[in-house]
Specification:
It is a single chain. It is built from 13 helices and nine strands. The chain has about 290 residues and is an alpha+beta fold. The chain has two domains: about 200 residues, Arc Repressor Mutant, subunit A; about 60 residues, Alpha-Beta Plaits (2-Layer Sandwich), CATH 3.30.70.240. The longest helix has 17 residues. The protein starts with 5 loop residues before the first strand and ends in a 10-residue tail after the last helix.
Length: about 290
């Protein structure tokens, strides 16, 4: 099966949008407040057609999400209805919390250091841990050692418990000693951030354009703005402004995201219910 794909250009990172990812963003936006809801496959096909995905691509993506344990299908006559699984609800809730709380961290120059040493037969949990640490704002200091701005212990523990690694990881929270060149540390772990600053500027130019947002329509705009914004926590560890020269650009981009995402919530949910209604009633997404 060849998927129709298109590219969301967020600054200089080019993100090839796939239907599985977009479905999760759409369902996370509209169903996390009503996780017992079932939605019609035909409605989801219609919703993704607005993003130039074919019906075959959407149905294939739905099947893949079922295989991944993210959706629970129910046959209703000739049509299939879908519901978020408990696993999907947990993952999407964690992701939303991280995305919505994402902001500047470590104003007091506090840092979290995480260290682990896992045997070769634990390659899969190690790889999953690395991916989750990157999402949580950690950067690789050296092999088996990761660092993040701020106190990330509470954010990190659920991942360690989920992967059953809580007894194989050490975490420390503290401040760098005077011999540490923090600016050099930031550059060596995360680079110079030039691309990230450009990405924030591009994001703001697009999503502050109210005419462009209105032309998309509430559901499409709310889905896309979340899908684009969710890339930033993967790339931006949330460093405080004293380590950056573009902190205001990030703040403006975050404001633009929240404006679009919240102001379109009620109208987007009504549109979603109209498209996908199975046993759901319209409710604004907070």
């Amino acid at each position: 099966m060849t998927y129709l794909v298109h590219t969301i250009a967020v600054g200089v990172f080019q993100h090839r949008l796939q239907p599985q990812e977009l479905l999760l963003t759409l369902l996370g936006n509209e169903l996390l407040r009503s996780t017992d809801t079932q939605v019609r496959s035909a409605g989801l096909v219609s919703a993704l057609s607005e993003h130039e995905f074919s019906p075959a691509a959407t149905r294939s993506a739905l099947s893949r999400l079922v295989k991944r344990g993210m959706l629970d299908p129910t046959k209703n006559g000739r049509e299939v209805h879908y519901q978020l699984t408990a696993r999907a609800t947990a993952l999407l809730s964690d992701g939303e919390q991280r995305i919505l709380s994402f902001s500047e961290l470590n104003p007091g120059d506090e840092w979290t250091l995480l260290s682990y040493s896992l045997p070769a037969d634990q390659r899969s949990p190690r790889d999953r841990l690395r991916r989750r640490l990157s999402f949580l704002g950690f950067g690789g200091l050296r092999d088996g050692q990761w660092i993040a701005p701020g106190n990330r212990v509470a954010d990190t523990m659920p991942t360690l418990v989920e992967l059953n690694l809580q007894h194989q990881v050490e975490m420390f929270v503290g401040q760098p000693a005077s011999v540490t060149d923090v600016a050099q540390l930031v550059r060596s772990v995360w680079g110079c951030f030039t691309e990230l600053a450009t990405a924030y500027e591009t994001f703001s130019r697009r999503w502050s354009n109210s005419a462009w947002v209105d032309a998309l329509g509430p559901l499409k705009a709310r889905t896309l703005v979340m899908h684009e914004w969710r890339q930033f926590p993967h790339r931006d560890p949330g460093l405080a402004r004293q380590h950056l020269n573009w902190g205001e650009v990030r703040t403006q981009a975050r404001d633009d995201f929240f404006n679009v995402w919240t102001e379109n919530a009620a109208a987007a949910n009504r549109e979603f219910v109209t498209l996908c209604e199975s046993n759901i009633s319209a409710k604004a997404t907070a």
